[in-house]
Design goal:
The structure holds three protein chains of three kinds. Chain A contains ten helices and 17 strands. Chain A is an alpha/beta fold. Chain A has two domains: 181 residues, Thiolase/Chalcone synthase (Peroxisomal Thiolase, Chain A, domain 1); 163 residues, Thiolase/Chalcone synthase (Peroxisomal Thiolase, Chain A, domain 1, 3-Layer(aba) Sandwich), CATH 3.40.47. By secondary structure, chain B is of the alpha/beta class. Chain B has two domains: 180 residues, 3-Layer(aba) Sandwich (Peroxisomal Thiolase, Chain A, domain 1); 163 residues, Peroxisomal Thiolase, Chain A, domain 1 (3-Layer(aba) Sandwich). Chain B contains ten helices and 17 strands. In chain B, the strands form five sheets. Chain B has a six-stranded mixed β-sheet, sandwiched between helices. Classes of the chains: A alpha/beta, B alpha/beta, C mainly alpha. Chains in contact: A-B, B-C. The interface between B and C is medium-sized, with 21 and 17 residues. Strand 6 of chain A pairs antiparallel with strand 6 of chain B.
Chain lengths: 355, 361, 74
């Protein structure tokens, strides 16, 4: 499904990562695997360090921390916030929506929209689209999009398919109207028949949490996991990305009349180093133009990886100049999305640590 | 936050209630109420019966059943579904989004956008806003707005505050473009500082599920609950309904250039009939314009209350012609959203009982 | 404010014959969440005042309640 947006821009990006860092060598100790095999995994997947929250830290904490930073620095004013969009799969409560809690904690105005949208890794692109759509309303001048997850709290330490991969974090993106006659092209696709490839089986209403669902089970390949833990079918996800993402981006660029060479950077969701290298190979994009270092420094922080790759690799450049970038976000759902836009000059494009 | 939308219409509504009906008279013994207390409670809250889903039925099942009926009736084709917006606070899973699961079960094509939005009582209005926004995109043909909740699973039967009033239900509403301008006026407000009025403490990430959060306690006479159950401050909700909703309804009437006289129906969320009566009497809205029987017959079904209200009380009218209506959803968040719009003529408007799948996939 | 009338209305809400100013509200069987709702509604409909849930929880006797509503009317 194709979308086109006019006269909208991203004004600034702030990424909040937990101060707490874990290393793969620590994680490795939990796995039922010989060390040599684990080290091989590390090399291929690009695992090294990741940031995870301390127990008890939630999405609203990361979001409030980041917003208070922006408010404190004068980069945002309370009353300017017309809409707060929170994209998360790890909410504070089932009820109320976490965006309401954030609004309450910050004392924001009543005349605004608060929305919790449950989306996985495709969440940054779809979140941006939500913001662009909202800005069509006269009364909406500034939208705050927050992508945030604390998924590490649902990863089994004895599941080496997932545990060393997951990072936590939040990204706060400010979106507003653009005086320039800019055009943004986007595309979104869904295949719910493969929804089981990335799932937490228990904890919703289909299978409520209980002592049984907390019980670790042998799930093959020497991994142990509970129904309360997140399950990822690695090869299904790999095949999915290789098959679906390149044509999506190709069609997007064709529609926009832009060649792959004219794109300054492909800022893609970072499942792990291996997957992204293979994607770059398939798309014939040099690695230099598809930055691939988020997992090794921060972990895969879900829909936060794209803002993280922006703030980590292009911190200065995006504040100084305007670049033509293609975003690609894909994962749980299964959903896959891409967006072509001019990005920059950003008022801010930083990573800060949550303490 | 004010919004306007043009050239959009609701074309079909189907509300789905579990077939299992329970009467207050048969249940009040669970609430440790004396006969006198029960009589008083029943009278004040106009309680009679409500629908409760069986253990294996989730909100998405109710919604999906509705979608199949719409497909069968020919008012919706699979290839027309461009977006699925699922509004619930009782989703199948926390990950993946339930809208994706529904997409898979319907066997739809890839050119669809799926969204799960966490909303309660204001959910139908929030969902409408989402649908109207999506329909600005040329590629979007029809939006399937699904609201559904099985709130009964977030409380025990021995809970006199929440259980007698709760109803489980789901609805599927189809929204599309239309050639007439038909401006829709909407106002949205939020106040998260009062979130404690209606919340669930445990089960999310603030207080993860554990043996402790699942422990049932009698927290007061006739109220047995655990930390993963709904906590409601009835008096705070009453204050909220009386203080905040009337000004918003006035605002949206003024914004749309309508009055109490020109609006033909007020389809309101129904926390309970008592509050609705109090509020609308205070606003001097003629009671015959305010259908107020959803709780008595089906229970308070959160975001599905409004579409169920319409299907229960005004189906014939909505099929026959156009009415100028005011919709207002308010509650958990706290979030309150009101709108003035034309409703009807609808292609489909029905309230049905859920049947477990046999021939229906 | 006609105090007699107020105590009579309160008696109806509490489902008792009579309420005296010195009576402690919590001592009545009928003083429950339903009674509180009825009271909030009565305050609004009959006396035109909006009483908050926290304010009701803070009062002890029937007279405290009467004074609370009377004060709000001014």
């Amino acid at each position: 499904m194709n979308f086109t947006f006019h006269r909208k821009r991203i004004a600034g990006v702030l990424v909040v990562v937990p101060e707490n860092e874990r290393s793969f060598s620590e994680d490795m100790k939990n796995f039922n695997f010989p060390e040599a095999r684990s080290l091989k995994l590390k090399e291929v997947m690009g695992y090294d360090k990741r940031r995870v929250v301390e127990p008890g830290v939630c999405v609203s904490d990361l979001a409030v921390f980041g917003l208070e930073h922006l408010l404190g620095e004068g980069l945002l004013k309370r009353d300017e916030i017309d809409a707060l969009l929170l994209v998360t799969q790890t909410p504070d409560h089932f009820m109320p929506a976490t965006s309401s809690l954030i609004q309450g904690r910050l004392g924001l105005k009543q005349d605004m929209l608060c929305l919790d949208i449950n989306l996985a890794c495709a969440g940054f692109v779809i979140g941006l689209m939500q913001a662009f759509m909202l800005l069509e309303q006269e009364s909406v001048n500034k939208v705050v999009l927050i992508n945030a997850d604390v998924l590490s709290r649902k990863a089994s330490p004895k599941d080496r398919n997932i545990y060393p991969l997951i990072g936590d974090g939040a990204a706060i993106t400010i979106i507003e109207r653009d005086d320039e006659d800019s055009v943004i092209h986007a595309s979104v696709k869904t295949d719910g028949s493969r929804a089981g490839a990335l799932i937490i089986p228990a904890g919703g209403l289909r299978l409520p949490s209980s002592p049984e669902t907390a019980h670790l089970e042998e799930v093959g390949d020497n991994n142990l996991r509970a129904k309360d833990h997140v399950f990822m079918d690695g090869s299904a996800i790999f095949n999915f990305v290789q098959t679906e993402v390149p044509p999506l981006i190709e069609n997007l660029l064709a529609r926009a009349g832009v060649t792959s060479e004219e794109v300054d950077y492909f800022l893609c969701h970072q499942p792990n180093r291996f997957m992204l290298e293979k994607l770059a190979d398939k798309m014939k994009v040099p690695y230099a133009r598809m930055p691939n270092n988020v997992v090794e420094h921060f972990g895969n922080n879900g829909s936060v990886t794209i803002p993280t790759v922006m703030a980590y690799n292009l911190r200065e450049r995006l504040q100084r100049e305007q670049l033509q970038v293609c975003l690609a976000a894909y994962g749980g759902g299964l959903a896959w999305s891409a967006m072509l836009l001019k990005l920059g000059k950003l008022a801010f494009n930083n990573i800060i640590e949550y303490k | 936050m004010k919004c306007t939308f043009k050239h959009k219409r609701i074309s079909s509504i189907i509300a789905v209630a579990p077939s299992q009906e329970y009467r207050f008279d048969d249940e009040y013994a669970n609430f440790k109420m004396t006969e006198a207390q029960a009589r008083r409670f029943k009278k004040m809250m106009s309680l009679d019966r409500h629908r409760i889903a069986p253990p294996d039925v989730c909100a998405s099942d109710l919604c999906l059943f509705g979608v199949h009926r719409l497909l069968e009736a020919g008012v919706l084709k699979k290839e027309e579904i461009s977006a699925i917006v699922f509004i619930s606070q009782t989703p199948d899973y926390i990950l993946p989004p339930t809208s994706n699961v529904i997409h898979g079960k319907l066997g739809l094509g890839h050119d669809v956008i799926c969204l799960d939005i966490n909303q309660g009582c204001a959910g139908f209005l929030v969902g409408l806003q989402q649908a109207f926004m999506l329909l600005e995109i040329p590629a979007v043909t029809k939006v399937l707005l699904l609201t559904g909740d099985t709130g009964s699973k977030q409380m025990t039967r021995e809970n006199r505050i929440n259980y007698p009033i709760n109803g489980d239900a789901g609805a599927a509403t189809v929204i599309e473009r239309c050639s007439e301008e038909k401006t829709i006026y909407m106002d949205i407000k939020n106040d998260g500082s009062r979130y404690k009025a209606l919340m669930i403490p445990g089960g999310g990430y603030r207080m993860p599920s554990s043996v402790e959060t699942l422990k049932l306690r009698e927290v007061e006479e006739g109220v047995v609950k655990c930390l993963e159950h709904v906590d409601m401050d009835g008096a705070a909700i009453f204050n909220f309904t009386m203080d905040d909703i009337p000004p918003q309804i006035e605002e949206v009437l003024s914004f749309s250039g309508e009055t109490r006289d020109s609006i033909q129906y007020f389809f309101l969320h129904q926390p309970n009939p008592f509050i609705v009566t109090q509020m609308t009497q205070k606003m001097k809205i003629p009671q015959e314009k305010v259908p107020n029987n959803v709780v008595s017959l089906y229970g308070n079904c959160s975001s599905t209350t409004i579409p169920l209200n319409i299907a229960l009380n005004a189906a014939e009218l909505m099929l026959a012609g156009t009415r100028r209506v005011c919709l207002s959803g308010f509650g958990v968040g706290l979030t309150w959203v009101s709108a003035v719009m034309d409703l009807g003529p609808l292609d489909f408007c029905k309230l049905v009982d859920y049947e477990p799948t046999g021939s229906h996939a | 404010m006609d105090k007699q009338e107020f105590y009579q209305r309160l008696a109806e809400i509490l489902d008792v014959e009579e309420v005296k100013p010195e009576n402690v509200l919590k001592d009545f069987d009928g003083w429950d969440s339903l009674a509180i709702l009825s009271l909030l509604a009565m305050a609004d409909a009959k006396y035109g005042v909006s009483v908050k849930a926290e304010e009701i929880r803070a009062v002890v006797t029937a007279e405290d309640l009467a004074r609370l509503i009377e004060a709000k009317r001014k």
